[in-house]
Design goal:
Distance between the termini: 19 Å
Number of strands: 0
Structural class: mainly alpha
Order of helices and strands: HHHH
Number of helices: 4
Shape: elongated
Number of domains: 1
Largest sheet: none
Radius of gyration: 19 Å
Length: 149
């Protein structure tokens, strides 16, 4: 159990490490939001596939595998909120407060950080739909028939 949980964390944390730079504002081909969304979707599908491949065995149940994927998506959302959105919002609040109190302009970096936070928030929003599906599928949708239900 502990070995499985450690490997599960590694898979989903690596997925976050790969998603993290895709959420930053870019120029060129990665400046297109759709290209970044496709990249994030590929990473999430790959992490889900790895999760299923490594842990699908005769003892695995639909609930176990579905919760593994749903929980992984939830972990991605948590890390995204803590490592990107929350950190950026703290800076933006401090800068806004300083600008209001001192009459100073917002730093030039504020626009880039706001765009980064916005995209990261949208990523979490869109990841919430498959996360909810997999959490509900654990008991209500046997999508892995024949894998040891």
């Amino acid at each position: 159990m502990v070995k499985w949980l450690g490997a599960w964390f590694v898979v989903w944390i690596m997925a976050f490490v790969l998603i993290y730079p895709l959420q930053m504002p870019h120029k060129g081909i990665l400046g297109n939001g759709w290209m970044r969304c496709i990249g994030i979707a590929v990473i999430v599908v790959a992490a889900s596939w790895i999760d299923l491949e490594w842990y699908a065995n005769p003892r695995s149940s639909n609930a176990h595998l579905a919760i593994g994927i749903g929980g992984g998506l939830g972990l991605l959302m948590l890390l995204n909120t803590w490592c990107v959105v929350w950190r950026v919002q703290k800076k933006m609040i401090a800068w806004t407060r300083a600008a209001a109190e001192q009459g100073a302009a917002m730093p030039a970096e504020a626009e880039r950080l706001a765009a980064w936070s916005y995209f990261a928030s949208r990523t979490g929003f869109w990841l919430s739909f498959p996360m909810l599906f997999f959490m509900a599928a654990a008991e209500h949708y046997p999508f892995l028939i024949g894998m040891g239900n």
